[in-house]
Predict the structure.
Amino acid sequence: MAGFKYEPVLRYRKFQEEKLQRELSETNRSLEAEKELLGSLENQLEDARRKFRLSVGRPVNSPVLLMHNRFLERLCMKIARQLERVEAAEVKCRQKRAQVVEALKNRKSLEKVKENFLIRQRALQKKLQGKFMDEIGVNKYIRRQSDGEDECSQ
């Protein structure tokens, strides 16, 4: 009985799938880190706005107001850049997920081919075993017949 000739390809596809899954996991972790940083920046912006609203009742001189305004602008620009990074990380995650799905499909299709091969091999083995058993039965019958003739001739 011959082995499945595409076994090395199947092992390679499993290896590729596992590698892509590890990369997807790493990409997901980086996406979560980017989202966490975005949340932190948004919290900073909200805190700065809240502190400014609380200080509105007090007299504020122009340089302090200008400095606070510039700080808010820089923070908003950081948030915009971080949003772009989050979107890029999400795109990368979607692409990696699609690659994992494709690798999974490739492996599953080859496993189906292997399963069909094994089914055919088992059927062939059963057929050969049946032929062998039939041959044994025929040989026993012939031996009994010839033994029976020998007993009758004595």
